[in-house]
Design a protein that fits this description.
heterodimer; A: alpha/beta; two-stranded antiparallel ribbon; B: about 400 residues; alpha/beta; 15 helices; 9 strands; flat
């Protein structure tokens, strides 16, 4: 079965090829791209489209590779031992399977999402090399090897905060999600808000892409911000004329808080708007 | 055909390995590309490229191999800036000659010919003679195209874009003792410190001790961890002399701060652009030169490379062999820069010039492009960003 986007997710052709290659060859797919371009959602959509269970493992700065395999709750065992509980004799009672183990144990082939792998320690990807390559690992406490019933489809996302080791990269397919062009963006908006007015989208996209072109923004608004903003515009019933900054004196788009997330960016934008207004007033 | 593609990719400096090539072959065997060129392109891209920085280079090689297009060399440095030629001609043409040119077909025509001539000369000088001066056959010789110290764009240009300055400069040895006012720079540099745990076990690891004692069901089990020490290694390359004179003070501050921060710090000097030789002692620079190859072979790839320089020079100093203002360099500056970057992946360029001015200087744009955009201003924010890039 092939992935070709879904009702709620617009996949470009290169993304489809990459996903299908990774699925067919059972190799992890590393997805990078600007924040808000749908990296995390991709795994969810693929799982849904292919009808496979999804296991998400969200990485934090303190996450260790071991956490994905299993954790041994030694403290609970110590307490139980002092209380004289019977279950203390079986060490298996204190082994808690992690996300990787759960995905390996899944009845049907699973989709495993390792989200924001770059958040973790620099050694983290290296510690997972063998596990992701062979899809098995050894549980020392139980003296047994856990092997995947079906090799899961692995998606890994990265925000580029750290570089990943070469040995790790060599085992992955890689896809960089480009920022969508207008045509793709129109399709993305259409799958999210089928009811939306055509001209509202057009005006909003003009404002949006203009805003993205403002030099020096700290965080440029991306797809998810555009979608949020459109939703707000619809809910608040903002007239389309308000978006046409060219003829109105208000150069700042309404509800800009959904698009600009940092105070500095708002300041910068206000200043630019002020200057643009003054220029127009002067002529 | 595919082997060829693979080899070309490697030649273009993409870090593709046999493993990735075999993956691609496996995918081809399963017919994942469905015999479509587009799909094959996407497939090979996601199998062979692992970093978005390399995507563009990959595209160029792909186009070259599979469409028979010519491989386009990096950055547009081959093109000679129009303004240069204008200046050159203006300077050395008398009014009469200008009139003569008009009769010969006007400025544009002349520019065209001059451009061609310069390109030819660039090719010829590889034979051993310098492109300025030996052009005895050049029709432009008559216009006084002078071998000695031609400076183009010198007048009316703040950017000191001298093509050839033959005079030797006085170089000051950068002083490592300037400590005042360096406090804030230190703060940024400290980012570079990555406390790697190495060496013998010497400290008590309390969390691990508790954990393993619990695991032992209450029997004390002591755990030790290695002592922390700074394992960051840095190669610092400083530009001295020439247009950097204004910035020597800023560099001195950075330098003295850096010296205190790293255990492994090696510093080298260059002038404008690194070539086949670097030096460590500025006072004796002409006597004690180190071949750059030796530096590259001595320090392993885990060193982080920091250039400090304003990157303001004539584009020839980067782009063409023989472009250096001080000596005859067999290979162009960009060849050496690429070589250094191929070894040291963690590299940044710190530029003391204000960032707003970068766009106006061609050589800064070129260096920035070679560095893959990793050029940062010599401000706290810039240092902070640079250090973050280095410690990624």
């Amino acid at each position: 079965m092939k992935f070709s986007g879904s009702r709620t997710y617009v996949a470009t052709e290169d993304l489809m090829v990459a996903v299908n290659a990774a699925v067919a060859l059972e190799r992890p797919l590393l997805v990078k791209g600007e924040p808000g371009t749908g990296k995390t959602v991709l795994a969810q959509e693929v799982a849904e489209a292919l009808g496979k269970p999804l296991f998400s493992w969200h990485i934090k700065s303190t996450t260790k590779a071991q956490h994905g395999l299993y954790e041994y709750d030694a403290v609970a065992r110590l307490r139980d031992g002092q209380l004289g509980e019977a279950r203390v004799h079986d060490i298996a009672n204190y082994i808690k399977p992690g996300r990787l183990w759960q995905a390996f144990d899944s009845e049907a082939q699973a989709v495993l999402l390792i989200d924001e792998i770059d958040k973790a320690d620099i050694e983290f990807p290296n510690d997972l090399l063998l596990e992701l390559d062979r899809m098995e690992f050894y549980v020392y406490e139980l003296q047994k090897t856990v092997k995947a019933r079906h090799r899961p489809v692995v998606f890994i996302t990265s925000n580029n905060e750290k570089e990943l080791p070469d040995a790790f990269l060599r085992r992955c397919f890689f896809h960089y999600i480009r920022f969508p062009d207008r045509e793709t963006m129109r399709r993305i908006v259409a799958v999210h808000y089928p009811q939306i007015q055509e001209n509202l989208v057009r005006e909003a996209m003009n404002v949006f892409y203009e805003l993205r072109d403002v030099p020096g923004l700290k965080k440029r608004p991306s797809t998810s911000e555009l979608l949020d903003w459109l939703k707000l515009l619809m809910v608040e019933d903002i007239p389309i004329e308000a978006l046409r900054s060219k003829d109105s004196t208000k150069a700042i788009p309404p509800l800009y808080g959904a698009l600009l997330k940092s105070e500095q960016d708002v300041h910068l934008f206000e200043r630019l708007a002020f200057m643009a207004r003054r220029e127009r007033g002067g002529h | 055909m595919f082997v060829n593609f693979f080899l070309e990719l490697r030649q273009a400096g993409l870090p593709v390995s046999l493993k990735e090539y075999l993956t691609l072959m496996e995918a081809m065997k399963q017919d994942l590309a469905e015999r479509q060129v587009d799909h094959f392109y996407y497939l090979s891209r996601s199998a062979l490229v692992k970093d978005e920085r390399h995507l563009d280079r990959f595209d160029r090689v792909f186009g070259h191999v599979f469409k028979g297009l010519e491989y386009i060399e990096d950055d547009g440095t081959v093109a000679i800036p129009e303004e240069w030629l204008k200046k050159l001609a203006e300077k050395f043409l008398t009014e009469d000659e200008k009139k003569m040119i008009q009769s010969l077909g006007g400025w544009d025509k002349l520019m065209e010919t001059l451009k061609k001539r310069l390109e030819e000369q660039k090719g010829r000088h590889q034979g051993g003679s310098k492109w300025i001066g030996t052009a005895g056959t050049s029709p432009f010789g008559a216009y006084g195209y002078n071998p000695e110290g031609v400076r183009i764009g010198q007048d009316g240009s703040r950017n000191r874009r001298a093509v050839k300055v033959w005079d030797k400069r006085e170089f000051k040895n950068l002083d490592g003792d300037v400590e005042i006012g360096t406090r804030n720079i230190k703060v940024a540099l400290r980012r570079l410190r990555r406390f790697a745990r190495e060496g013998a076990a010497t400290e008590l690891d309390l969390p691990d001790t508790i954990r393993s004692t619990a695991k032992n069901a209450g029997w004390l089990d002591l755990k030790m961890v290695p002592e922390r020490h700074n394992a960051v290694k840095v190669l610092l390359c400083l530009d001295v002399g020439g247009s950097m004179d204004d910035h020597v003070r800023v560099c001195e501050e950075l330098f003295s701060a850096a010296r205190a921060e790293f255990k492994h710090l090696e510093y080298f000097y260059f002038h404008n652009c690194p070539y086949e030789r670097l030096w460590q002692d500025n006072r004796r620079r002409h006597a004690k030169m180190l071949p750059t190859w030796q530096v590259l072979h001595t320090y392993p790839a885990d060193y982080k490379l920091i250039f400090v320089g304003d990157a303001t020079m004539s584009p020839y100093e980067i782009a063409v062999p023989g472009g250096s203002v001080e000596h005859w360099n067999e290979e162009a500056g960009q060849v050496w820069l690429h070589r250094m970057l191929a070894i040291y992946h963690r590299a940044i360029w710190l530029n003391p010039e204000p960032q707003e001015r970068w766009e106006y200087t061609q050589s800064v744009r070129m260096v920035r492009q070679i560095m893959g955009g990793r050029m940062y201003p010599l401000t706290l924010q810039g240092l902070d960003d640079g250090m973050r890039e280095l410690s990624r």
